[in-house]
Amino acid sequence: MSDTPISVSSSGKFKLAGEVDITRLGYGAMRITGPGIWGPPENPGEARRVLQTLPELGIDFIDTADSYGPDVSEQLIREALHPYKDVFVATKAGLRRAGPDQWQPDGRPEYLRERAQRSLKNLGVEQIFLWQLHRIDPNVPADEQFDAVRALQKEGIVRFVGLSEVSVEQIKDASKYFKVTTVQNRYNLLDRQSEAVLEHCEANGIGFIPWFPLAAGNIGESASILDKVARDHGVTPMQIAIAWLLHKSPVMLPIPGTSNRTHLLANASAADISLSSEEMSALNALAR
Question: φ, ψ for residue 126 (rounded to 5)?
Answer without folding.
Answer: -90, -20
